[in-house]
Amino acid sequence: MRIMASPSQSDPLPREVSLVPASVKVNERRVTRGFVPKLKKVVARVPFAADLVSVWFCARDPETPTPAKALMMAALAYFVLPTDAIPDVIAGIGFTDDAAVLAAVLATLGRTLRPRHKQAAQALLEKLARDA
Length: 132
What we know:
Blueprint: H1 21-42, H2 49-60, H3 66-80, H4 96-109, H5 115-131
Helix pairs in contact: 1-3, 2-3, 2-5, 3-4
């Protein structure tokens, strides 16, 4: 049996533990703390912001099935992490890895998104644009 140290806020979770309940809680905490602050910083540079925020609303919806929430939170936590495969600060390509993760989630769970999630996302993005 392997004993693993508790992950820090910026450490990615190993794939073999990313959907166990404790890991889901870590992802939820990362997303709760970091999603909106990061979104505010990068929204103008992220062409997939509407899909990203729609997934965020869907993952927080009590009607979304738990396994779908877990995968969505994992993708959102990846977006929030300051370290990832392609650093976000690289102009032009910094968010391509985040887009690929989100595309995989949407391809798998896109049916879970409801019009209300997309409408809430659009409203939040409009508010962020007004407040900028």
